[in-house]
Automatic annotation (TrEMBL):
Feature: compositional bias, Polar residues: 282-292
Gene assigned in the entry: yidC
Region of interest: Disordered: 261-308
Swiss-Prot/TrEMBL keywords: Cell membrane, Chaperone, Lipoprotein, Membrane, Palmitate, Protein transport, Signal, Transmembrane, Transmembrane helix, Transport
Function: Required for the insertion and/or proper folding and/or complex formation of integral membrane proteins into the membrane. Involved in integration of membrane proteins that insert both dependently and independently of the Sec translocase complex, as well as at least some lipoproteins.
GO cellular component term of the entry, any: plasma membrane
Lineage of the organism: Bacteria, Bacillati, Bacillota, Bacilli, Lactobacillales
InterPro entries in the cross-refs: YidC/ALB3/OXA1/COX18, YidC/Oxa/ALB_C, YidC/YidC1/YidC2_Firmicutes, YidC_ALB_C
Protein origin, superkingdom: Bacteria
Entry protein name: Membrane protein insertase YidC
Every Membrane insertase YidC/Oxa/ALB C-terminal domain range: 60-248
Origin species: Streptococcus criceti HS-6
Family to which the UniProt record says this protein belongs: Belongs to the OXA1/ALB3/YidC family. Type 2 subfamily.
UniProt xrefs under HAMAP family: YidC_type2
Compartment annotation: Cell membrane
Molecular function GO terms recorded: membrane insertase activity
Length: 308
C-alpha cells in the first residue's frame, strides 16, 4: 500500500469515526444536544463559551475562538505525538531508500503475479527486519482520543444558546459566510501543501490530488453550516498549520539525525531475495504427446512378449 492510499484510508477511518462519535451527541425532543460526549465535554465547552461571551463581555465570536484555542492546546500533544510517530517512520524509509527502491522496482517490472508476490514478500521482510511500520506510524489511538473533543466542540459552537443570534466582525454567526469559507479553504490548502512539501519527489506526485481533498471537503461541509461552526474550523486550521510547521522544521530534522545514529549502531539489514514459485511451463500439447508416446511404447512391449 503506497503513501497516498494510506492517507486516503486513514482519512476515511477518521471521517467514519467522527460520524460515529457525532452520533453520541444527538438532539433530543427539545432540540438540544444530549448524549455521553455532550455531557462530558460539549456542555462544559458551551458553558465556557457563554462565560467568555456574557461574563467577560467578549461576545460569542471571541468566546468560540478562545474555547477552541484552549481545546486545541489541550490535545496538541496528542497531535504532535501522532505526527512524530509518522515522521519517525518516514525518516526510516528515507534512510533505507537504497534497500527499498530496488524491491519497488521489481514490483513495478514484475512480468507475472508470482514475481510480484515474491517482491512484495521481500519488501515486507525488509520493512519488518528494519523496524519500519507498514502503516507509516499513523497510530489510530491518538486520533480516536482527539475525535470526541472535535465532535463536542462542533456541537458547542452550533448549539450553545445565543450563539446563532450574534454577530462577529462582518458576519452573523447563525448564517453561512462565503468569504470566511474561502479563508478556511486557503488555510487547509496551506496545511496540505506543507505536508506534501516534505515528501520525496515521487510521493509528492502521487499526493498531488489528495492535497486538494481537505480544502474541498471543508468548503462542501461549510456550505451547510452556520458561520459559528466555520469559525471553529478557522481556529482549527491555524493550529493544523502550526502543528505541521513544528513537524517539518523541528521534529523531522531531529528524527533524521536520530535515525542515522541508530542505523550506524545497528546497520540496516538487506532481505534475502525471495524466489518466485516455480511453475511448469511445458506446453500442454507436448505433455500430452509425451504421455501418448509412453503408452504406445508400453503396449508395443507387451505385444512383443506375447509373440515370444
Amino acid at each position: 500500500m503506497n503513501k497516498t492510499s494510506k492517507r486516503i484510508l486513514l482519512s476515511g477511518i477518521a471521517l467514519s469515526m467522527l460520524f460515529i462519535l457525532s452520533g453520541c451527541v444527538r438532539l433530543g425532543k427539545n432540540g438540544k444536544p444530549t448524549g455521553t460526549v455532550w455531557h462530558l465535554l460539549g456542555e462544559p465547552m458551551g458553558h465556557l463559551i457563554t462565560f467568555f461571551a456574557h461574563n467577560l463581555g467578549l461576545g460569542f465570536g471571541l468566546g468560540i475562538i478562545l474555547v477552541t484555542v484552549l481545546v486545541r492546546l489541550l490535545i496538541l500533544p496528542l497531535g504532535l505525538h501522532q505526527s512524530r510517530s509518522a515522521a519517525y517512520q518516514a525518516a526510516k524509509r528515507d534512510y533505507l531508500a537504497p534497500i527499498f527502491e530496488p524491491i519497488n522496482k521489481k514490483m513495478k517490472e514484475a512480468a507475472t503475479q508470482e514475481e510480484k508476490m515474491a517482491a512484495q514478500t521481500e519488501l515486507m521482510q525488509a520493512q519488518r527486519e528494519n523496524g519500519v511500520s507498514m502503516l507509516g506510524g499513523m497510530g489510530c489511538l491518538p486520533l480516536l482520543i482527539q475525535l470526541p473533543f472535535f465532535s463536542a466542540m462542533y456541537f458547542a459552537a452550533r448549539y450553545t444558546p445565543g450563539v446563532l443570534k450574534s454577530d462577529f466582525l462582518w458576519f452573523n454567526l447563525g448564517h453561512r459566510d462565503i468569504p470566511l469559507m474561502i479563508i478556511i479553504a486557503g488555510l487547509y490548502l496551506i496545511q496540505s501543501w506543507l505536508a506534501v512539501k516534505q515528501m520525496p519527489e515521487e510521493q509528492r506526485k502521487q499526493a498531488g490530488m489528495t492535497m486538494y481533498m481537505t480544502p474541498i471537503m471543508m468548503v462542501f461541509f461549510g456550505l451547510a453550516q452556520p458561520s459559528a461552526v466555520v469559525l471553529y474550523w478557522f481556529v482549527g486550521g491555524i493550529f493544523s498549520i502550526i502543528q505541521q510547521l513544528i513537524t517539518n522544521f523541528l521534529i523531522k530534522p531531529k528524527l533524521a539525525k536520530q535515525v542515522e545514529e541508530e542505523f550506524k549502531k545497528n546497520p540496516p539489514k538487506a532481505p534475502k531475495t525471495a524466489k518466485a514459485a516455480r511453475k511448469d511451463v511445458t506446453p500442454q500439447n507436448q505433455t500430452n504427446q509425451a504421455i501418448t508416446t509412453k503408452k504406445k511404447n508400453r503396449n508395443a512391449g507387451k505385444q512383443n512378449r506375447k509373440k515370444n
